[in-house]
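pinned: reference chain
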Amino acid sequence: MPGQRKRKRRRQYEARRSAERFAPDAGRWEVLFETQDASEFRAHVRRLRESDPEIDWSAVRVDNFCGRLIYPDTYRLSLFVPDPAPAAGRIPGER
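pinned: its structure tokens
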């Protein structure tokens, strides 16, 4: 197929870039919203998309924790918050 190698390389590059960007030592995931009601979750995401255009949606994670017999499903929306970069030329912990 024409272009298949190019698409494969692009996917590999994007996966590598994403792994570096969201590495555990690069920052943390903060929960924005959590609920057990799917329609409430969809409505909240829709309102966020309309009201806050500054959110970087490539740094948002949606988790769906599947419930079993006695626990209901849980829906969680998290945003990746990068750690602040240390100032150049400064030693960490020094004022």
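why pinned: The chain is about 35% helix and 25% strand. The longest strand covers residues 27-35.
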